[in-house]
Amino acid sequence: MTIDKVFKALADPTRRRLLDQLHRDNGQTLSALCEHMDMTRQAVTQHLQLLEDANLVVIHWQGREKLHYLNPVPLFEIYKRWIDKFERSRLGALRDLKEKLEQDDE
Amino acid sequence: MSKPSFVYVTYIATTPEKVWKAIVDPSLARQYWNDPNAGANHPAHVNVSDWKKGSKWEHQRVDNNNVDIAGEVVETDPPRRLVLTWARPKELGDKSKHSRVTFDIEPQGKVVRLTVTHEDLEKDAPMLAGISDGWPKVLANLKTFLETGRPL
User: Fold this and answer.
1) Contacts B140 to A, Cβ<8 Å
2) A90 and A67 in one domain?
3) Is ipTM beyond 0.90?
4) Which of A33, A55, A66, B133, CA to CA, is 20 to 30 A from B37?
5) Which helix (DSSP H) or strand (DSSP E) does residue B111 occupy?
6) Are residues A28 and A67 located together in one domain of the fold?
7) Cβ of B7 and A27 within 8 Å?
C-alpha cells in the first residue's frame, strides 16, 4: 500500500464526493451511491475501485449486499507524516482565522 | 443484523502473531494506543483480560488504571480473530447498550490486513462520535509502531 495511491485517489473531485457521501452515510451499496452521482454506474464503479485500491474505501459483505465503507486510516497516516510534524497548532489557528474572515465577508 | 457502523482496515508489514500481541498485551499497547496530539488529557490505554471466551476484558488508562470501556470476550481465535462486546462500565448490566468489535487479522503475502469492524453503535450517538475519531488514530499508530518498532 503506497501513499502515492492515496494522493492519486484524492486528486479527483468525483472521488472526493464519493468519500463525502460515505462520510454522511457510511456503508452504502453501489446503487445507493449512484443515486447521488451524475454519471454512469460503470464510471462510479471505476472510481470506487481506485478508492478501494488506495484503501480509502473498504468493502463489507452483509449477506449478499456489497457495502462500501469510508476508511480514514490512510488519511491519518498522511496527517501524521505531513501535517502533524509541521506545527499543527499554528496551522489550526491559521485555518480558524481564514474561516472567520471568509465568513465575515459573506 | 444491522449493518456495521464502521469498518476500518490497515495493512501492516508484520506477522499476524505480532498484531495479535500488540492488541492484547498491555506492555505493547501502552506504547501506541493513545492519541499523541491530545497530550495529558488522553493518556495511553491498554486492554486487560485473560482473553478466554466468556471472560471480561477492560480498556484501562495506564496513568490511573481507570476503566473507560469494558465488555466480554465473545470469540477468540489467536492470531486471526477476536470479537469483543464494548460498553461503558456503568452500563455493563444493560446489554441493549452494548456494541461489538471484531478484529480480523489476515496474512496477505508479506503484509497483514487488519480489519476492525464496529457494530451496533447506532443507538449510542456520543459513543459513535468518539469511536469514529479514535479507531483510525489507533490503527495508524499501530501500523507505525509495528513497522518501525518505535513507541509513539
Assistant:
1) 73, 76-77, 79-80
2) no
3) no
4) A55
5) strand B111-119
6) yes
7) yes
**pTM score over 0.90:** no
Contacting residues of A for B5, CB less than 8 Å apart:
26-27
Q: What is the dihedral of CA A25, A83, A55, A72, to 10 degrees?
A: -30
Query: How many folded domains does chain A comprise?
Result: 2
pLDDT (tens place) for every residue of chain B, 152 residues total: 688 999 999 999 999 999 999 999 999 999 999 754 455 556 789 999 999 999 999 999 988 889 989 999 999 999 999 999 999 999 999 988 899 999 999 999 999 999 999 998 877 778 877 777 788 889 998 999 999 887 66
CA B9/CA B113 separation, integer angstroms? 7
Q: Are residues A24 and A47 in the same domain?
A: yes
Domains of chain B listed by start with CATH number: 6-148 (3.30.530.20)
**Testing the interface with B: which of A55, A65, A73 to mutate, by most B Cβ within 10 A?**
A73
Looking up cell 469492524 gives: B117
| CA distance, residue A106 to nearest chain B CA (Å) | 30
By Cβ distance, the residue of B4, B8, B140 closest to A80 is: B140
C-alpha cell at B127: 459513543
Residue B126 identity: P
